[in-house]
Amino acid sequence: MILFIDCGDTLCDESTEVRLVPGGVVQQASLFPGAAETLDRIRAMQVPICLVADGLEASFQVILQGLTDRFDGWVVSETVGAEKPSPLMFEAAMQAMDLQEEDKPKILMVGNNVRKDIAGANRFGITSVLADYSPRYDMTPHAPDEVPDYLLHDIRDLPDLILSLSEK
Ligand SMILES: [Mg+2]
What digits encode the pLDDT tens for the residues 43-85? Predict the structure, then answer.
């Protein structure tokens, strides 16, 4: 298995983000409990991890400080010039991880946004996992391609989900 993962309200609790100006670089933010340990557990399972996140590069350097070495690939919309659900973001992740079309059945995209993460992953032909533990976004699919393949109620449950899918 290969993990593509969002940051805001998936690894990091967006309600804790501090910015000097609206839309500016995040100066401070907290991860969800167990998020860092979960990345370590997934790495220990030999599952490569790619960040696939919309926002500013400088923000993710702050939010994920001390954890950047957990990611084998690092794809940020500011650098790509497009945001999820654009396939450009997922294609950038494929390139960053040196993946081919035939690897798609092994890729999981985990994120909290049905319109961006889930629709983007479904249209791209990879497995979608909705992280549904943050209250900030509407989790209701409004189109068939916004329906996630799997639900994740706690980031700490992600290693077990990966394990169960890898046994399929
Ligand atoms: Mg998010």
Answer: 999 999 999 999 999 999 999 999 999 999 999 999 999 999 9
Query: Ligand 1 (ion): which residues have CB within 5 A?
Result: 6, 8-9, 112
Domain region containing 47: 2-143
User: What is this structure's pTM?
Assistant: 0.97
Cα–ligand 1 centroid distance for 111 (angstroms) = 6
In a domain, 37, yes or no: yes
Whole-angstrom distance, CA of residue 106 vs CA of residue 126: 8
